[in-house]
């Protein structure tokens, strides 16, 4: 009888832990199902492998993603991890774009100034 009294709190704690863990898992699974059901062509998404793409077409089991202009690949819906929300246009800074363009231009100009020696 005494061993049952010692064992009962352990069972209650483990049961509570398992209940809350399964509840959290169910909630996450429902959020994933809701995301997959709400996908529409034109949505920007991330896949589970980290690829960012635009949804082009959707079927019951698959989704066609445009990963580059004119390049469309077919993925299982389960591979879509989340939807990328567009940034607020007011937060967009033109100076950051100009700096990134300057960096790209400087990379190109470095290639143009290489010296090649003939041996």
Question: What is the structure about, briefly put?
Answer:
The protein is α+β, with helices and mostly antiparallel strands and 119 residues long. The chain has a single domain, classed as SH3 type barrels (Roll), CATH 2.30.30. It has two helices and five strands.
What count of helical segments does DSSP give? 2
Structure summary, number of beta strands: 5
| Helix/strand/pairing category | alpha+beta
Number of domains: 1
The percentage of residues in β strands lies in 15-25%
Strand arrangement within the widest β-sheet reads: 4-3-2-1-5
CATH topology: SH3 type barrels
CATH class (first level) name: Mainly Beta
Query: What is the architecture at the second tier of CATH?
Result: Roll
- Mean pLDDT value: 79
What does the radius of gyration come to?
26 Å
Measure the end-to-end span: 93 Å
| Low-confidence region ranges | 91-104
H/E element string? HEEEEEH
The helix content is 40-55%
Strand and helix map with partners:
Blueprint: H1 2-38, E1 44-47, E2 52-58, E3 62-68, E4 71-76, E5 80-83, H2 94-112
Antiparallel strand pairs: 1-2, 1-5, 2-3, 3-4
Structure description:
With 119 residues, the chain is of the alpha+beta class. The chain has one domain: SH3 type barrels. Helix content is 47%, strand content 24%. It contains two helices and five strands. Strands 4-3-2-1-5 form a five-stranded antiparallel β-sheet, covered by helices on one side. A hairpin with a 2-residue loop joins strand 3 and strand 4. The longest helix is centred in the N-terminal third of the chain and has 37 residues. The radius of gyration is 26 Å and the shape is elongated. About 12% of the residues have low confidence.
């Amino acid at each position: 009888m005494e061993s049952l009294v010692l064992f009962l709190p352990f069972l209650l704690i483990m049961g509570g832990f398992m209940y809350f863990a399964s509840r959290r898992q169910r909630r996450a699974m429902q959020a994933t199902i809701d995301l997959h059901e709400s996908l529409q062509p034109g949505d920007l998404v991330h896949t589970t492998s980290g690829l960012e793409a635009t949804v082009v077409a959707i079927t019951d089991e698959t989704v066609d993603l445009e990963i580059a202009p004119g390049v469309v690949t077919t993925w299982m819906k389960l591979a879509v991890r989340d939807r990328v929300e567009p940034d607020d246009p007011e937060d967009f800074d033109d100076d950051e774009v100009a700096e990134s363009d300057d960096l790209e231009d400087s990379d190109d100009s470095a290639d143009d100034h290489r010296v090649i020696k003939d041996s």
